[in-house]
């Protein structure tokens, strides 16, 4: 079923989610303060907007409250990431997934109501360790 997803922050993580969700047939509203980043995803989103996602009025005017899913992919700016998550939570978005840079960031996001917190580098490191562990490596 087609989903409507708002993606905030178009770094490598947010951009790759945009491209893949588009390929899978979903509708995407992408938001970033950086014009260049926004232009880069204009071909794979329903709407791509240059805006500050920590401004509640901006999010309201973009109709973000009508979206069922939100992804906050602002990694480095902890304050913006937390504030944006809080606003989305208060708007009543039903699933909010947020990228965190470390465990402390993750704990704060969980407190403000993120439904899923992702630490990409950490999670991928664990997965790769398991892949390597299960490989049949013969050392001659
Ligand atoms: P990645 O690892 O996915 O490349 P990152 O974790 O380094 O990204 P940042 O570079 O901090 O994350 O942020 C990702 C994007 O979020 C940037 O393109 C930045 O312009 C955007 N961004 C930061 N703050 C805001 C904001 N308040 N509103 C909208 N976009 C924002």
From TrEMBL:
It comes from the Bacteria. Residues 2-118 form the RCK N-terminal domain. This is Potassium transporter Trk.
């Amino acid at each position: 079923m087609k989903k409507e997803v708002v993606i905030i922050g178009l770094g490598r993580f947010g951009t790759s989610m945009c491209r893949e969700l588009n390929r899978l047939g979903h509708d995407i509203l992408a938001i970033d303060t950086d014009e260049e980043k926004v232009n880069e995803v204009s071909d794979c989103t329903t709407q791509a907007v240059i805006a500050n996602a920590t401004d509640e009025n901006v999010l309201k005017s973009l109709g973000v409250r009508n979206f069922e899913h939100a992804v906050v992919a602002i990694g480095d700016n902890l304050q913006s990431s937390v504030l944006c998550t809080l606003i989305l939570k208060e708007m009543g978005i039903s699933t909010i997934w947020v990228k965190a840079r470390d465990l402390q960031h993750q704990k704060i996001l969980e407190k403000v109501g993120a439904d899923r917190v992702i630490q990409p580098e950490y999670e991928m490191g664990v997965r790769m360790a398991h892949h390597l562990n299960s490989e049949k490596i013969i050392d001659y």
